[in-house]
Specification:
single chain; 3 helices; mainly alpha; flat; 89 residues
Length: 89
């Protein structure tokens, strides 16, 4: 008896969210003031992530014996992240 070939299924990609979709989901208006508040909030979240990552690097470096090039490279990448203006590096 011949085996039946399995039917290939293709996953449909979800369409990318537009700015308007994001504003609607988070319940903010589309005006420039709402956008500034949204961006300001994101900056605060990013700052918290930066400080948490920095603390993790400090702890790992303290426990690391000898040089760890991957850890050093990752820590160096994290050094230029914080800032208030667009394109911080």
């Amino acid at each position: 008896m011949a085996k039946k070939k399995a039917r290939k299924t293709t996953k449909k990609k979800k369409p990318a969210l537009t700015d308007q979709d994001v504003y609607r989901i988070f319940g903010v208006g589309t005006g420039s003031q709402a956008l500034r508040q949204f961006i300001s909030g994101q900056r605060r979240i990013n700052g918290r992530f930066y400080h948490a990552i920095d603390a993790i690097f400090d702890e790992l470096k303290g426990k690391s014996k000898g040089k760890n090039p991957k850890l050093d490279a990752a820590a160096k990448e994290n050094e230029g992240v914080p800032g208030d203006s667009p394109g911080c590096s």
